[in-house]
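Proteins fold reproducibly. Look at a concrete instance:
___
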Amino acid sequence: MSTDVAGPEAATRPDPGSQSRPSRFGLPTATALVVGSVIGTGVFGLPTALAAFGPVSLVAFVLVSIGALALALTFGALAKRISGSGGPYVYAREAFGEFAGFLNAWCYWITAWAGNAAIVVALVGYVEVFVNTEHQVGWSIVIALAGLWIPALVNLSGLRNMAVTQIVFTVLKIVPLLFMATVGLVFVKSANFGPFNASGTSIGGAISAAAAIALFSFIGIETASVAAGRVRDPERNVGRATVFGTIGCAVIYVLGTLTVFGTVPNATLRETSAPFTDAANAIFGGQWAGQAVAIAAVVSGIGCLVGWTLIVGEMPMAAAKDKLFPKAFLRTRRDIPSFGIISSTVLASLLVVVSYTNFEQVFTTLVLLSVFTAVVPYLFSAAAQLYWLLVRGRKAEWPHLVRDCTVSVLALVFAFWALAGSGYQAVYYGVICLLLGVPLYIWLKAGQREYGGVKS
């Protein structure tokens, strides 16, 4: 473990909020950050959300995996050109200017804390396999709040503790998922799948709608690029961590979902809050297997929240260094963006309370909102890479240029497709959330007495 987290001398970009330079971690932790941030409780809850579409959603999962890989390659290419933390924010800012960079930072920040709310809602479903089995709303909220604040405390205790926790929890979550995605396939029965397209719409419409939900399970593939300023040799390790993590997650997702679909009847799957638990019980009989999977899901959710809680502070801190977010986000504790973590966890906590008391389909609603606010930065990142290739990439050899442009176009098309498939409600709330950032941008620029990039 000591070989993976370097000392203070490894950093290159000083932190305005700290006297010391930030610690850095290597490829294993960077990959664990990607896998840990991508695979949370979402994968444990998604089969229920996808059951309404039937097995056609597996087609959507495969297509989403291809698009996610294109995005991963795009983020890897961008990280080679642009160093420092911030990911989609710095890519959009470099290509399209400060306002585009701000909107991406704002949108991604919303994705991070709203996504944490969605993750913890799925986590609650598995905790309630053991306690609050009657799903009383008050106790569900208490469990959710604990699930949000424990990872926050882990992060605030320091980067080394966060890195160790992330690696340990990633290993613990991968083992049972790999088991379900491999051995579980032996127990699949075709009768459990139900109609291929159970949505009542066209196959194309069902695939698009299912893809928007499935995309939530890949949010996080960019986390290594967001924390690139903390990664050793980011030009090399960020891209590798992103691609390796995305491929591994895609294999586990598709095969794991196939196992659940084939071991739990579709009608039952639509109603359950812990589909992998039901699948394990169906495979082995009794309750012990399902309870073991539920424990794995809780571990997975906490590990995922540990990674995302770091990211929820890193993105606004990167923007704050460029005076595009309030300077309060520069405050750190033990080289960790403390203000960003605490304020974002407070917002996620409020969203959880509102969701449990106002939304009938809590998980799906939060998922689709998070997908919209995540796709906007993905779209800008793919556009930034394509823009750079068309303007400055002409010196490259033609085969390489054609290959890179093809990947960027695929990532861009995939982002538009996911945006369209997220649904009217998600687009409605997502656009409102996006535009709420405009008054903040005005306030920041007015405070700097700047208009059109010129100080008055």
Observations:
- The beta strands are 450-451, 454-455.
